[in-house]
Amino acid sequence: MMGELEFRKALFQAIHAKASLTPYLGDPMRVFDGVPRGAALPYATLEAATTQLLTGHLDDGGRLTGSIGIYSRHADRAQTQEILQIFNELLEAGVTSSAGTEAAGLTMTETSCRRLSDGRTWYGRIKFSVLLQQTA
Questions:
Q1: Minimal CA–CA distance to 25: which of 12, 6, 8?
Q2: Burial tier of 121 (Cβ tally within 10 Å: 0-12, 13-18, 19+)
Q3: Helix (H/G/I), strand (E/B), else coil: 83
Q4: Model confidence over 36-93: pLDDT tens digits?
Q5: At what angle do helices 4-17 and 78-93 cross, to 10 degrees?
Q6: Cβ(135)–Cβ(4) below 8 Å
Q7: pTM score of the predicted model
Q8: Buried b (16+ CB within 10 A) or exposed e, 66-85
Q9: Distance between CA atoms of 99 and 21, rounded to whole angstroms?
Q10: Which residues is 67 bridged to in the sheet?
Q11: Phi/psi zone of residue 100: left (φ > 0), alpha (ψ -120 to 50 degrees), beta?
C-alpha cells in the first residue's frame, strides 16, 4: 500500500513542480512539513495527516485525510486566496504516486481563509481526502 509517507513525498514533488507557486512561495519554495523558526512569509505547510485502513489490512489500502495551511502577511486576503486556488488546481489534477501504487478519489472537503488573532497574519487551509491502494 502507498502509505502516508509515500503520498506526502509525491505531494511535495507535485507542489515543487508547480511553477505558478514560485512567485508566492519563493525559490527555493517555502513549503514545509513542520515549519522552521523564522520562516519567511508567505509559506505553505502540510499539516495534520491521518490514514484510516479500509479493512484492517495494510494491503487493502486506506483513506488519508490531511490539510495544507497557507500563512501570509499580505495587506488583505487576496494573496492567500490566490495561493489556495493554485493548490486547489494541483489537487484537482491529482498527485502521481510511485510505481505500483495509486492515489484515487482525491477530494477537497474544505477551503477556508481567515485572519489570525495577531491581526496581521492571514491563514488559509485546504482539507482533503484521498484513497491509497496498491495497483498490482
A1: 12
A2: middle
A3: helix
A4: 888 999 999 998 778 787 776 666 677 888 899 999 999 999 999 999 999 999 888 8
A5: 120
A6: no
A7: 0.84
A8: bbbbbbbebeebebbbbbbe
A9: 26
A10: 127
A11: left
